[in-house]
Each structure stands twice: as structure tokens, then as C-alpha cells.
Design brief:
Layout lengths: L20 H7 L2 H4 L3 H17 L5 H19 L12 H13 L12 H37 L4 E6 L2 E7 H26 L1 E2 L15 H8 L3 E2 L3 H6 L2 H27 L7 E2 L18 H24 L14 H21 L4 E2 L1 H9 L5 H10 L4 H18 L8 H5 L9 H5 L1 H7 L8 H16 L3
Parallel strand pairs: 3-4
Antiparallel strand pairs: 1-2, 5-6
Helix pairs in contact: 3-4, 3-6, 3-8, 4-5, 6-7, 6-12, 6-19, 7-10, 7-19, 10-11, 10-12, 11-12, 14-15
Bound molecules: arginine.
The site of arginine has 10 residues, from helix 6.
């Protein structure tokens, strides 16, 4: 790269002294916004074509700009171009290099636009690209969950409320609860994309431009579904970034809950699952340890995404129209949110189908804690008792079981009849774990055949184009 690239700022003609070196570094964003180089070039290519279409650039000028930008892109991707803090941000770095390469025509590229609408366009293009990469990762994780749910449709485990044994559920049913959360997350992301995919370019600095621009043509070239209706809003709106980060915070909240269960379940106390070794690490001091680092980290990373949401909301709070330099602070929280979400989803999508369920242990765990007590109460209601009376009778049976160390299914018929004389030999069908889950046989219930039906619906959903 030639040293001319470090020429004084393009915008410095009105100044009588050059920018303080510290201020230059303090106000620069090239250290992080170079991430959007592709989108910046993409936006410039479309802008130049539009300027040519409306007669502001002639064919030769357009040709020079297209070739020049192509070379800049190549220089960036091959690591030849060094970013300059003097050129402040990605927009000016690229334009300065273009001008070095093609000469005076490079200076015409910025006709009819401002960095204000340029940066807004770049962020939207960037975020749209990222959303389009995130969607298949969500689907991949969902596929893993459905696969696991099908495999474990008949596996019995304790279901919890208050983290106390409540009623037996099937492992597959539990996995499909996570599937449902991700389904809503995906729906929300697709909805968010609609508001991301709107073109700000043409807003120029804030008021629009005096050139006869064709914004609909630019939008078409860049694949935007709509053209921003108001130039002041176009340069200053960052709702879409807040909305995405809010979306990410909700996704991370879900993944943190999931993580928490995986951490608990892989402990020596639960032993419900085995996470593959490649997702765990050992301890530097305790030789027996296998730590569930991946879910722990995802749980921990949720905090930084919540923080980014708060940063962006606070960044935008009370900002007057239109663009303010404050907005340069939108990028780092947004970029880190994208990285965190992509990493977390990737880890989960790889890990979930690879985990093993220890069926015998989950079964025995479900047997402890009188998980079929509600089944006995429902049985007594079917035999004619009022629910509150049956609740009382079963409570006494459980109290007896706690003293004697027997599960309800292990008590003799005589003992059970001591709590309610309506109990007959058929009671044992409802007291087994298999009977308990099979009885919850309705849409959305935990019965294995309902889980398999839900798996079939989930597969249909996954087969649809996103
Ligand atoms: N680097 C700036 C940002 O990220 C680009 C826009 C600068 N506009 C301006 N008027 N200073 O927001």
C-alpha cells in the first residue's frame, strides 16, 4: 500500500489545524468497523450503478469505479491493504484507497450520499448476512433435538416443578420443549429480518440529496425489500439493531436454561446424561473431573448479550434527530452479540445429538419422589371421589411411603386400601411409570405416542423452506 493512503482526512479542508493525534484515535472506528468491508463495497457498487443510471456518472467513470472497488476488495481479502486510523473508518479507508488506484474518478463515488446513510446501509447489509447464517444454525439445533426426541420417545425421567420430582415425563417430550422455544426464536428472527431489510441509502446526511437519485433501483440491486420512507429516520434508526439484540437476548436466555439442565444432568448427583468428552474439559488439580464447560460458558455468555442490549438501548436513549456520532458505538455490541450467538448455537447444534441418555438412571430417578401420586389421585376420582378428598387420601399414602421407604407401586393392595376402600387391583396399572406417561395421551401431552406424533409434526416443519 502506498503511503499516500495516510494523506490528511478527506474532510479536512475547513480545518485550520489537523486533528489531535489522540482525538484521531479516540474517534476512529476502523479498528472494528473494518468487519463490514464487504458490505461497504457492495453498497458502493450499487450506489455507483445507480448514479450511472440516472446520468450522474458516465459509463467510463462507472467502469473505473467498479474495477477499482474490485481491486480494493482483492487487496483487503489478500491482506495487502492496511487500515489507517487517519482515514477514521471503513468508509473513508476504502474510498481513499479507491482514489489512489483510479485517481480523480474515485472522488466522485461519494456524490449524493453521506457516511450517515452509508453506514446505516452497511450495518443493515451486514446484519442481514449474519441473520441468514444464523437461521440454518437454529434449524440444525432443532434437527438434533428432534432426532434425540425420537430416539428417547419412550425414555422415562422425572419431570420437575420447583426442581422437586413432580410427575414422570418422557425424555423426548422434554427435548421437544426446547424445540418449541427455538421455533419461536426462529419466527422472531425472521420477523426481525423484515425490518432490517430496508434501504437507508439516499437519505444522504439527513435531508436527502439534490441529485436525481433512484432509490428503488439501489434497493433492487442490494436486495432490500423496501426503501426507507423518511431520510431523517433512515440515518438515525437503530431499532433494527436493538431488535436483533433483544432477539439474541431471548435466544441466549433459552440456551442458558438449557445449559443449566445439562450441567445438572451431567453431575454425579443426577447422572441423567453423558456429554461427549470433546465438549468437556478436565481439572488441573482433580483427576476425576469432567467439567461441562460448553454449557457453562453458554450460560455465562448470556450475560454479555443482555449487557449489549442494555448498551444499545442506552445509546439510543434521548438522541435527537438525526445522526449523532454516538451511533458509532452501536457496532461493537452488535458484532459481539452476533459472534456470541453464532458460537453458542454452533456448540449446541454439535453437542445435542451427540449426548447419551442414561435410561436406567432416569427411570430409577422417576421412581423416587412419588412421581405417580397424581395418577393415584386421578384414579380415585374416576372411582367416584371428589378430587380434594382423593388428594388427601393420597397424601396419607405418601406420608406412609416416606416412613416405610416404599414407592406407591410397591405397597400391597391391603395397605393401599387402608387409605381408601375404593382402591382395587387395577390400581397398579396407573402406579407404574409407563402407565403414568401413557395416560397423558392428548395433543401436547407426554405419552410416547404423542411424542412421536409431535416428532412427525416437527419433521414437517423442518422440511419447509425457511
Ligand atoms: N464511523 C461512523 C459511524 O460508525 C460513520 C458515520 C460518520 N458520520 C459522520 N457524520 N461523522 O457511525
Amino acid at each position: 500500500m502506498s503511503n499516500q493512503h495516510n494523506q490528511e482526512k478527506l474532510s479536512s479542508a475547513r480545518f485550520s489545524e489537523s486533528t489531535d493525534a489522540f482525538v484521531e484515535a479516540f474517534t476512529a472506528s476502523i479498528m472494528f468497523d473494518h468487519r463490514m468491508y464487504k458490505q461497504d463495497i457492495q453498497g458502493s457498487l450499487a450506489h455507483a450503478k445507480m448514479l450511472n443510471k440516472v446520468g450522474v456518472l458516465n459509463d467510463q467513470e462507472l467502469d473505473e469505479i467498479l474495477r477499482g472497488l474490485d481491486q480494493v476488495l482483492h487487496e483487503i481479502e489478500s491482506g495487502q491493504l492496511q487500515w489507517s486510523i487517519k482515514q477514521e473508518d471503513i468508509h473513508m479507508n476504502i474510498e481513499a484507497r479507491l482514489t489512489e488506484i483510479i485517481g480523480v474518478t474515485g472522488k466522485k463515488l461519494h456524490t449524493g450520499r453521506s457516511r450517515n446513510d452509508q453506514v446505516a446501509t452497511d450495518i443493515r447489509l451486514y446484519l442481514r448476512d449474519e441473520i441468514d447464517q444464523i437461521q440454518p444454525e437454529i434449524l440444525r439445533l432443532q434437527r438434533g433435538l428432534v432426532e434425540l426426541a425420537e430416539r428417547e420417545a419412550h425414555t422415562i425421567m422425572p419431570g420437575f416443578t420447583h426442581l422437586q420430582t413432580a410427575q414422570p415425563v418422557t425424555f423426548g417430550h422434554h427435548m421437544l420443549a426446547w424445540f418449541e422455544m427455538l421455533k419461536r426464536d426462529l419466527e422472531r428472527l425472521q420477523d426481525c429480518r423484515k425490518r432490517v431489510n430496508s434501504l437507508p441509502l439516499g437519505s444522504a446526511a439527513l435531508a436527502g440529496t439534490t441529485y436525481p437519485i433512484d432509490r428503488h433501483y439501489t434497493a433492487e440491486l442490494l436486495g432490500f425489500d423496501r426503501v426507507g420512507e423518511n431520510s431523517l429516520d433512515g440515518v438515525s434508526d437503530r431499532d433494527f439493531a436493538i431488535e436483533f439484540t433483544h432477539w439474541a437476548a431471548t435466544l441466549m436466555m433459552h440456551l442458558s436454561r438449557f445449559s443449566e439442565e445439562l450441567v445438572l444432568w451431567s453431575s454425579a448427583q443426577f447422572q441423567f446424561i453423558d456429554l461427549p468428552d470433546r465438549f468437556c474439559t478436565g481439572s488441573s488439580i482433580m483427576p476425576q473431573k469432567k467439567n461441562p464447560d460448553v454449557p457453562e460458558l453458554v450460560r455465562g455468555k448470556t450475560g454479555r448479550v443482555y449487557g449489549h442490549l442494555m448498551s444499545l438501548l442506552t445509546l439510543m436513549k434521548s438522541q435527537p434527530l438525526a445522526y449523532n456520532k454516538d451511533n458509532q458505538e452501536d457496532k461493537e455490541p452488535l458484532f459481539d452479540t452476533v459472534d456470541t450467538v453464532k458460537g453458542s448455537l454452533r456448540a449446541f447444534a454439535d453437542m445435542i445429538p451427540a449426548m447419551t441418555v442414561k435410561r436406567e438412571i432416569t427411570y430409577q430417578a422417576a421412581k423416587r419422589g412419588f412421581s405417580t401420586a397424581t395418577d393415584l389421585a386421578d384414579y380415585l376420582v374416576r372411582k367416584g371421589l371428589a378430587f380434594r378428598d382423593s388428594h388427601e387420601a393420597v397424601g396419607l399414602a405418601v406420608a406412609h411411603g416416606i416412613r416405610s421407604g416404599e414407592d406407591l407401586s410397591e405397597m400391597s393392595l391391603e395397605t393401599l386400601q387402608g387409605f381408601c376402600n375404593k382402591i382395587e387391583a387395577d390400581v397398579y396399572q396407573v402406579l407404574t411409570l409407563e402407565g403414568s406417561v401413557a395416560a397423558r395421551n392428548h395433543f401436547g401431552g407426554t405419552a410416547p405416542n404423542q411424542v412421536l406424533a409431535a416428532v412427525a409434526r416437527a419433521k414437517d416443519y423442518l422440511a419447509q423452506p425457511a
